[in-house]
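Repro:
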Amino acid sequence: MSHHSNTSPSLDNLDDLCTRICRTLDSEHSVLRGSNGLIGRGVNDLEEIHAEKSAQIERLESLAKSPEATDEARANPERAQLIREKIERCKQLQYRNHQVFSRIVSAQRRIISALRSNDEDISIYDRAGRARDYGIGRLGDRA
């Protein structure tokens, strides 16, 4: 696992928790970047990861605010700084995942909007140049 001294168990716990959160965020990123990130099994995976991430972050916040962690941070400022840097790394990974998720949602909204447009907004012509109904208007009604 980790190679910490036994003199600062709260800082050790924070350090280990940050490592787990980073792994969880990397797993989330992999699902988001996968071809089925927001459909099928990907949704279930994201829900499980989100629940795990939320619990980990809640634990991190609780530990970081504990009097023991505060005392240990004062006694070991260099170690405390390393943990603050790990927490910052977690925040960067969360921001990265949020950006990917936002792009996926934006793309989905554009697709839904296109599917819901009026038939007149979508012009499809056959080889002779005549407008054809390929059922696109009916597809939008099913969305």
